[in-house]
Amino acid sequence: MDLNMVSYLAELGKLAFSPEELEQMAKDMTSIIAIMDTVKEIDITYDAVADNKNVYLNDLREDFSVPSFPTEKILQNAVNDENCFVVPKVVE
After folding, report:
1. Which of 12, 13, 33, 21 lies closest to 3 in space, CA to CA?
2. Is pLDDT of 7 > 80?
3. Is there a contact between 23 and 16 (Cβ–Cβ < 8 Å)?
4. Whose CA is closest to 3, among 34, 29, 36?
5. What is the pLDDT of residues 9-65, one digit of tens each?
6. Buried-most residue among 7, 50, 57, 63 (CB within 10 A)?
7. Within 13 Å, how many C-alpha atoms sit on residue 76's CB side?
8. Nearest to 3 by CA among 30, 22, 20
9. Are 36 and 55 in contact (CB under 8 A)?
10. SS (H, E, C) 35-90
């Protein structure tokens, strides 16, 4: 990245740099762009078969329902008797 572009970007960002800082900024921005060009080369196409190759439906556990705890037992020590818990206000 050349100094004219860095100077223009600094002007757009309302930033003031000394000539030495502009040169350092140009070097830093050039290295950042080089890194991003390297990242851009990575293949990120999604392959559902390859991404889920270790998951088989036969290996999953069986899903079954069980009776829940009785509501009367849970609410036996509750202050309110309208089938709900009353908790103190946390946020005002």
Report:
1. 21
2. yes
3. no
4. 29
5. 999 999 999 999 999 999 999 999 999 998 888 877 777 666 666 666 676 778 889
6. 7
7. 5
8. 22
9. no
10. HHHHHHCCCCCCCHHHHCCCCCHHHCCCCCCCCCCCHHHHCCCCCCCCCCCCCCCC
